[in-house]
Amino acid sequence: MSWVSNFSSWIPRVGRSNSVEGGSTRVREDYAEEARERDHRSARADHEIRKLKRALNNKDKEIKEEQQRRRELESARRRQWQEKEQEVEHLKNDLAHQRRTIDELRTQYAMLTKQKDEQGQLLEARTAELQAAQVFLGKTDALSAAEVRNMLRDLNTDIFQTAAKLADAIDLSYRPDDSVAAAPAVQDALQNWLAPELLEAVSDTQDSSVLQAAIQGVICGCCHEIIGGWPLVLEKNRMVPSSGYEDLYEKIRNQEPQAVAGRWRSLSRRYQREWDKGGNTERRDFVSYASHEVYLVNVATGCVLAPELGQAISDSLEGIIKLALGLRNVLGEDITSCDFATVVASPGHLLDLQWMDEEGGDPFGEQAYGSESRTLCTTELGLLRTEKIGLEGASEHFSQEVVAKCKVALPSLFQPSEAPTEAQRQQRRRRSDRKGSKMAAV
After folding, report:
1. How confident is the model at residue 177 (pLDDT cuts 50, 70, 90)?
2. pLDDT band at residue 432 under the 50/70/90 scheme
3. Residue 246 CA: distances (Å) to CA of 242, 254, 263, 276, 335
4. Per-residue buried b or exposed e for 59-98, using 16+ beta carbons within 10 Å of the residue's own CB
5. Would you state the pLDDT for residue 31?
6. Reduced to 3 states, what is the DSSP secondary structure of residue 380?
7. Tally of CB atoms within 10 A around 11
8. What is the dihedral of CA 6, 7, 13, 15, to 10 degrees?
9. For the chain, what are the domain ranges?
């Protein structure tokens, strides 16, 4: 190198050879070191460049992918926008169509409203014409025949239980020596309910079932009068039967259709008893009447009667009379499509199994009766349904149906072999209690 030769020209000659040789070596080593560092830096730079190129390529790839996604999203958004524009256009068309339809419907509504107003005015005119007669045209009853039969069954159950209790309250085993048969006045008062044979048996029997049958007969007779009669009317501070209404109803019933007659009966009975709010006055009158009749039966036994017996009878009959009055009001006011009536057998009437059964008889109807079997009294009320059917004129007729047979006592009651024992009477009472419990559950 030229600079080495120039440099060595002024170096002292002493030790010149060694100095030149040693300096050259250091220079070469420094140069080599520098070259190595340059090579190392160059290699690192190349490595970094390659890394950067790879990163740049990756970024270019990502950018291209992102651009592709953006193009796809933009295309999808344009398609959605076009679809939305088409949907908005369709909705606008539908809205325009609906507005036209609404306009048409408004026009039709105005026409229909006008027609409705005209028909409403016509209907009001026709309603005003028919309103007075409408009440006579309906045949829907508040209660069915089955419900009426259940009410009667409740009443019969109470009559049976009350009669049994009152009969057990009398000591039939003791009669004073001076006791005689029932006085004629007592027999006359009870002859409508009890046969002479039964009254005679009551005066000397020691079987409480005979007395119970007699009490049942009297209570059934009183309830039959109450249910079949019209509400009492107050005249000159006295309660008297309203027979005039009953006679008038029979005339209307024979001349007018069933619906008209039934509605007239319902309204007449309802307004006829309006004076007695709650029905307490009428009930007290009937309780007093029935208690007196039952007390006469006990008098006919010839036994010693307790002083408090009269009040006990009145208390026992209070619920029965209430049930009888309730049944009377239901049959007379809530039933218009037909006429219901309770059924009793007159004392001494021939046994007719079409509308009566023997008390305690064969429930399967296989028991044989003599042709001269006559009733002693009625122990359970029956129920008869009567309806006027057919068109006005010759085809009109009354149809009758026995809804429930009445129960009667027969002379077999006196026969020792067939007279019910105390155990049998208790069994009958338990059966009646179970029947009453089932009805209460219904």
Report:
1. low
2. very low
3. 7, 13, 14, 19, 16
4. eeeeeeeeeeeeeeeeeeeeeeeeeeeeeeeeeeeeeeee
5. 82
6. strand
7. 12
8. -140
9. 2-110, 135-441
The pTM of the full predicted model, rounded to 2 decimals, is 0.64
For residue 12, give the H/E element and its range.
none
Token pair for residue 105?
């419907």
Instruction: Report the 3 state secondary structure along 388-434.
Output: EECCCCCCCEEEEEEEECEEEECHHHHCCCCCCCHHHHHHHHHHHHH
| Count of H-run helices and E-run strands, the chain | 11, 8
Joined together, the tokens standing for residue 161 give: 């239980």
Is residue 409 pLDDT above 70, yes or no?
yes
How large is the average pLDDT for residues 86-92?
A: 91
Residues 205-214 pLDDT 10s: 888 899 999 9
Average confidence score pLDDT of the chain: 81
Determine how β-strand 356-358 pairs with β-strand 377-380: unpaired
Which pLDDT does position 46 carry in this prediction? 86
Structural tokens at position 258:
């069933």
Residue 181 has pLDDT above 60, yes or no: no
The phi, psi pair for 385, rounded to 5°, reads -110, 125
Give pairs for 325-330: CB < 8 Å, separation 24+: 325/226, 325/279, 325/282, 325/283, 325/286, 326/151, 327/148, 327/151, 327/152, 327/155, 327/227, 328/226, 328/227, 328/228, 328/229, 329/269, 329/273, 330/142, 330/143, 330/148, 330/151
Instruction: Give CA–CA dist 294/159, Å, rounded.
Output: 12
* CB of 301 closer than 8 Å to CB of 172: yes
Candidates 150, 146, 143, 159; CA nearest to 332 is 143
* Local structure of 182: helix, strand or coil: coil
> Cα separation of 284 and 278, whole Å?
12
Strand, helix or coil for residue 141: coil
- Above 60 in pLDDT, residue 16? no
The total of other beta-carbon atoms located within 10 Å of residue 100's CB is: 10
170's tokens: 């009398």
